[in-house]
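User: Show me a protein chain along with its predicted structure.
Assistant: Here is one chain, sequence first, then structure tokens.
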Amino acid sequence: MTGFVVTDLPGSTRATGVVRLAKKILMDGAKTMARSQTYAWAILNEQVSGASAGVSVDPAESQAGMAAFVDAVLDRVSAGELSLEAAKGVSDSDLSQLAQADTRSKIGQTARSNGTLNQELLAGGAFASAATAHGDLEGARVILEGTGANTAAFIAAAATHGAQIVGLGTFAGAVVNPEGFNLDELLGLLAESGSALPSSLGSEVPSTALFQTQTDLLFCGSKMGLIDHLLAETLDCKMVIPVAPAPVTAKGLAVATHRGIAVLPDFISTAGPLFADHPADSATPEQVVATATDTLSSALGQLSTHPEGLYLAACYAAEAFLLTWQESLPFGRPLA
């Protein structure tokens, strides 16, 4: 077993991010994930570094590997220097000891109608970002890809904005319905059966077919580098909204922009859960959600007229803040 923690910025007293487990976790991908979190904190004018951890271990030894990793980082977490969330291959129960020691607010784990508050913040922040960049989402066609365990929260957010979901990727495959799904029915089925949705909802298609389905908004993030220049050439959407770090490559961004497809900065569209990190002591979950969506909408709104597009405008804004407390910028932007 080998494990590591990437902390993006030197001199930072706090770092937050995720931990992943697989047979082989690559350092380059971890650095990109950490960079996305760094830029998210910078957009919020917070002197916090991004972090990303990886545990490379044979599947048969994963439990022992995670236990050893938790032991290795527990002191840093207890001291408030490091906070990690579960990602690929890691369950919340794997990190229960770290969660108990974490100095952050526990409000993000509050149970809500369609998941936890953190999940509601992720979905709400992504949809608020989309609404700011696109305009009113009433009747807008939406595809959800890569939302995973957060799917119910994203469906609920779509319903709140009056959007129409026409395609949905799940762990079990993908379904498409050009007329739009009944969102109440979708939520009910997810509550009953998890990600295994019946084909009666619409046409079952390969997950890759979602990207050629006509839509206004493509929410995506099943893996880093998902949308490269080749896939960007075939997209049939008006806007890409990341739901996880760096799903678009640098060349993918260039091609999409050239084709008139807006790509929202992942470090804004995924930043909702950061607002549960240290809210006001008296803040309710509803107030945390309102603060997150209002702040992210305002941040994007201020960048909307930049001639180089939203993604680069957001990078420039994050980098301007970083230079107020770092001697130099970290090398490379959060693109796969």
